[in-house]
Amino acid sequence: MIRHIVMMKFADRVNWKTFANETALKLNKLVLLVEPLNKMETGINLSTRQAAYDLVLTADFEDEACLENYRIHPEHVKVLNYLQPLLEKSTVVDYLINN
User: Fold this and answer.
1) Which of 21, 40, 54, 95 has the fewest CB atoms lying closer than 10 Å?
2) pTM, full prediction
3) Is residue 99 assigned to a domain?
4) Mean pLDDT of 27-35
């Protein structure tokens, strides 16, 4: 199983919570629209630290092929296109879950 984690920081520091909430809604809908996606969870940051990101996404996939299918899925690409102009930065980690 592969775990995919994305942390996002929005460029607009006044309206970041609005963008984080809207983005979380869009991401959470992908569970119903993208078949290779087993599970997804989003979380909006509570920390006030300068280094903190605003939104985190955790998603699980059966294997790397499923993760790749998610990355190129048209519904996921729509969310990426929405996000791209809003983000200051993002960080991604994909790792094998050892059970």
Assistant:
1) 95
2) 0.91
3) no
4) 93
